[in-house]
Structure formats: C-alpha cells, structure tokens
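Subject: two folds for Thursday's group meeting

Dear M.,

Sorry for the delay on this. The cluster queue was jammed most of the week, so I only got both jobs back this morning. I'm pasting them in the order they finished. Each block is the input sequence followed by the predicted structure tokens. Could you check whether the formatting survives your parser before we put anything on slides? The first protein is the one we discussed after the seminar.
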Amino acid sequence: MLGTIPISKAPESINEVLIHSLRGIAPSTHINDVVVLLTWSGYGLHPTIHKSESLVRWRQQNAKSRPYVLERPHRKLILETICNACKTWNWALLAAHIRSTHLHVILDTSATPERSMGELKRACTNALKEANLATWGDRIWADYGHIRPLGSPYAINKAINYVLNGQGAPMEIHHGESGCESCAEATPPLHRRP
C-alpha cells in the first residue's frame, strides 16, 4: 500500500519530522508554511457536486466548451508540469494522482493555498496548450476547486493514503518518497510570476 506512514513516537514537532521524511531531507532544512490537499476537475466533468438537477442541466446547456477529459498523454504532462512547478517554486510535492476527470495534489507550500492552486492550474493549462493537447480556446479546468489544509501528521497521512489508494486503479501518480525524479523532465522550466 502506497502512502501510509507509521507515526510511532512524538518528537518536539512530529509534523516537521513527517514532512522531512517525505521530502527525504534533514530536519534542519526549512519547511514551507502549510500542507494542503488541492483538488480540481476538468471542465464540465463533475456536475454531480450540485444537488439541483435543474442547475446541472443549466450548466450543461450553457457550457462554454466541451467537457475536458484527461487522457493518458494529458495526465503524464500534467504530472510532469506539477513536479517541475513544485521544484521551481520550492514547494514539496508530497503526493499527486492525476485521474481522467480530476486530480489531487498534496503539497507543502509557502504560498497561499489559493495561489498554489491557481499557479498549478495555470502552469498545467499552458503546458497542455503548448504541447497541442488542448487548443487555445478550450476551457480545461472547472472554475472551482477544493482546498483542504492538513494541520496534523494524522491528517497528512490520511490524505496521502486517500490520494494514492482511495481513487480506484492508479493512473498517473507521484509519491513524495519516490521524489520528482520519477517525473520526466519533458516540460520546459517554469518562471515565477511577479
């Protein structure tokens, strides 16, 4: 089973030890400010989050673009882009699972969770369009997303287990223990926005 991390003792900062063990670095190294689980969907692919059937029908009838399904080449490029973005911005990518309709990313970030999600969505959109896996007129992502701060080692462990093992058959996954080396360096380097 991927992603489960036994926590048997309580040092002065178990969260620090957990993050460092996932990152594979010494405890004296700087840790970013917050660990979050980010989830977002491809455009037009998760209308069931709305309870109202009339709202679902309205959204389908007024869609600005076709639903955007993430096929294997899309998922591989998205994972590579997320790995490279996290390296560029010095965020620790603890786990990611890119599915055909949505994706989950757990990261230790120094940016606000909202900015982290926005930057990752932007980087993935640009990579897909530059690789001709989407046209410049396509809407790739749903406007919304879900952000869940993970404030304890238990919450981090539970979220990693959910992302890696609770999504059905694995598609494109990244586990912090394997490092970003498992992601190909096919995407160009990213530059920080001012």
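Second protein, same layout:
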Amino acid sequence: MAYLFYSITFLFLVVATVLYTTRHHWRSSAPPIPYLTTPGPIPAPLYSLHLRLLTLKDNLTHAYTPLPTSSSFSSSPAGNTNTFASDAAAGFHSATFDLSSNIESGDGRAGLDERAKAEVRRLMERRGVAFDEARRLWVEERFGREGIGRDGRPKDPRAFMFS
C-alpha cells in the first residue's frame, strides 16, 4: 500500500512540475477563476462576510485594548491634540488599522490627517458604517477623484502597466 501512495505522490509531483514549467503555453486557454484572476471589486456579500469574520475574530481574541497611560503622551508637543492616542480615542482604529504600536512606541509625529479624518467621520455618520468600511469608501472616492479605478488601476488609456 505504501508503494501505491508514494507512486501517486511522485506522479502528482511530476505532473505539477510539467504543468508549472509549460504554463505559458496553456494558461491563456484556461478558464478564469472567479474572484481570483478576474480584475474588479470584491462582491458586496463576500466583502461584508469578510468584515463580519474580522469583527468576530477581533471580539473573540481581545475584547478590550486599553489605551496607554499618560507616560505615552510625554513625547508629543504640549497642546498638540492631533496625536495617535487622540485618534485612537476618537475611534479611528480597528483590528485592520491598528494605532497601538504607534502609541506604545511614543511616536512623536502628528496623528492622522485632519481633513481625511473629517471625511471618514462624515461617512461613518452619514452612511452608518464602521471605521474600516468608511475608510474603504473614502479611499475609493479619493481614487475616483485622482483618476484611479476601483481596482487600483489608472483610468488613463495612455497608462502602461507591467503584469
């Protein structure tokens, strides 16, 4: 029985190697795999499922992440309210956009961009979405203003891209 297993494994490795080395010949006639090779946005049901799973994972792993103590604020200039700690306290953080490493390391830079924060906050309030979804919508709107498609590719027909 062991010879059968090893023979099948060896045959699989040989076939996989041959297919990999000759992929430039047959890849153009292979059918596209939906959502992996086809460019475009992720369908809304799959994206919302992804967000729900991330939220569930975040809730199960750590229900509460405390903000650092006042010693973390010592590196920021006095009177500066635009810090990473104030951004985190205002709700501009999530499991996929974590500011805790900036806060814990005492990062002395200014926090997030004020105008971008205001636009994200407006999206959160107007559409009733969470921070991650509002940030995604803001990026897509900004891409649209800059002439970039939803998939991240330039809309300019003269653009040349390497694949």
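Two things I noticed about the second structure. Helices lie at 2-21, 23-26, 44-61, 84-89, 100-104, 114-127, 131-146. Residues 71-78 have pLDDT under 50 and may be disordered.

Cheers,
T.
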